[in-house]
Amino acid sequence: MGQPSLLRAPRVTISFSLSRAQCSKLSTHSARLMSIRFWITLVLLSVIVLTSAHPQKSPKPTPRRPPYPKIAKATISTPGFHAALTFQLRINPKASDDIAPIPGLENHPKRSTRVFVQYTGVPDGQNFTYHIHNKAIKGKDCKSAGQHWNPTHSSMDDPKRPCDHKNPGKCESGDLSGKHGKLRNLPVGHLVAYYDSSLNLSYSRRGILGKSVVIHNEKGERIACVDSRFLAFCNPRKSHNKRL
Questions:
Q1: Contacts for 154 with CB less than 8 Å, ≥ 6 apart
Q2: Residue ranges of region Disordered (predicted)?
């Protein structure tokens, strides 16, 4: 028998042709695509050039609040009475020979405030009290200083443990004369000094900055006051004000 013949698949040729109108439309469409791509590329390049030419400014850093001072001063000067108070922050304070130690106040574990008070003008036989009050003085009226500064809400109702230098914890934090003694008639130039760990030099509920110092006579009347901005003279009838 002879070899079987191989079957060959028929060759199929597909062809098509476009009319001139179709070719024209295709060319126009291709040209539009090329134009769109060109403009997109041009816009992107422009953005890159402008960005590099005008770089964005970095935001300004937020200014830091200045640190709390280590010294605060209050000066009071009225006809017949003058006082200068200095509050100085002390790190790991130690009692010295020139300051009588006050139990619980002379050696704070970390930090304490040393207070210097120099004054003249207390009449002989009288005692003036002085306190830190809650608010700064507004206008010319010392009454705007508010009540005594007492952030710990200390109570003075226990007659067995009154507010004095032996029980400073029973005193309001702002009752300086209660904790450290009243202002009495002393020789000119005499300096009173003590430590007080409750007097923080900060602008906060527990800090003395932004508050005021008020002097009271024996009747409890506010005769003088001062804060960080104003120097005020006060009496029951009239007040005068002078900038520091």
A1: 163, 169, 170, 171, 172, 173
A2: 143-178
Q: Which residues contact 93 (CB under 8 A, 6 or more apart)?
A: 106, 107, 108, 111, 112, 114, 195
| Among 150-154, 193-197, 209-213, 235-239, the least confident range | 235-239
Digit-coded pLDDT (tens) for 55-75: 556 667 666 655 667 888 888
Class of residue 156 by CB neighbours under 10 A (exposed 0-12, middle 13-18, buried 19+):
middle
Domain at 71-243, CATH class: mainly beta
The DSSP-derived string for 44-72 is HHHHHHHHHHSPPPPPPPPPPPPPPPSEE
Determine if the pTM surpasses 0.85.
no
Number of H helices, E strands in the chain: 2, 10
Task: Tell me which residue of 72, 60, 162 sits closest to 113, measured CA to CA.
Answer: 72
**Boundaries of every domain in the chain:** 23-55, 71-243
